[in-house]
Amino acid sequence: MNRIITIGREFGSGGREFGRRLAEALGFAYYDQEIISEIAKRISLSEQYVEAIVEHQPSFSFPIHIGRSFYPAVNPAFEQTMAVYQEQARIITQMAAKSNCVIVGRCADYILKEYRPFRIFIYADMESKIKRCREKGPEDEKLTDKELRQKITGIDKKRAKYYEVYTGHAWGDKLNFDLCINTTQTVIKEIVPAIARLFV
Amino acid sequence: MNRIITIGREFGSGGREFGRRLAEALGFAYYDQEIISEIAKRISLSEQYVEAIVEHQPSFSFPIHIGRSFYPAVNPAFEQTMAVYQEQARIITQMAAKSNCVIVGRCADYILKEYRPFRIFIYADMESKIKRCREKGPEDEKLTDKELRQKITGIDKKRAKYYEVYTGHAWGDKLNFDLCINTTQTVIKEIVPAIARLFV
């Protein structure tokens, strides 16, 4: 069975950087939310083209929803979100079956529980998350500290809700992880070699 | 400044074994609750002897309380507990000043916060804590699983209360630690070399 490492993370804690560096150190494949969403989108896009061609209908409603969301449903928005989740879950399972990998986000710890992944959670205190966001990119440049704090809290609230809806577990609860790493006082690239050693 | 590693732990999670092995791997001094209590007891014993001799009084009240508890107090039990805590805090600070060390329990993470210790928390799920307790010692042999679960929960409740009273922080909150390690699916001696690498 392939070696799977899943990473949950607070926004601004450096979870993606940690995941990327860990994958690189181990020579594992690396997948994160953006990659998984992009793949899901492309698959649904191509599936919808196929559908449109098969049924001789014009393609419609871009940006694309995935097939399942066109079924009649009591709550179409929920139905669509569920379908996206299921599609991503399918992709994540394929990734895990294909090779050793590090997967960041997307409830991969829960989706792959039968693979017994090593589950890492990356977190930090608010001050260092604000600092990291400011260093990382220009898009937060105009935000005050208060606004940035609200943004961080807001994104993590959404992550918590997403995780809880699909897994039934509390997001960030340490009992759902094998290792929780606080990056507050940490230079990420300095701790990666030690953590990588857990897997060799 | 010396390198200090503090370890908080749930009862039955293997925190002491982890601490001992980590200290051994790093060549650091190792202190835990029993050692600290023993030192505190011996110091208070000798201090009381001195006091008794100086004041020409017979020594009294063995097992010994520490000096401070003989002062008049509104709540003598609380006063005594506080005095024991303060005595242990003094000893822990001396240990940290003396050499690199690993200290298990006794709020050492909080007491030594000015030393910026690396703070580890060791935990596990209930099933594996029960298993570990059964493997460890004969004293729990006669307990049913239910009784053992109650014992574990009871000890951790006391630890949580002790920690919260003296530090004002929630016990086991991952934000108060740099690294939280779940030993549920772990052979402790196998992870120690990787974790030790964080400090070399």
Automatic annotation (TrEMBL), chains A, B:
Superkingdom of origin: Bacteria
UniProt-listed InterPro entries: P-loop_NTPase (IPR027417)
Protein name in UniProt: Cytidylate kinase-like family protein
Species: Anaeromassilibacillus senegalensis
Highest classification ranks of the organism: Bacteria, Bacillati, Bacillota, Clostridia, Eubacteriales
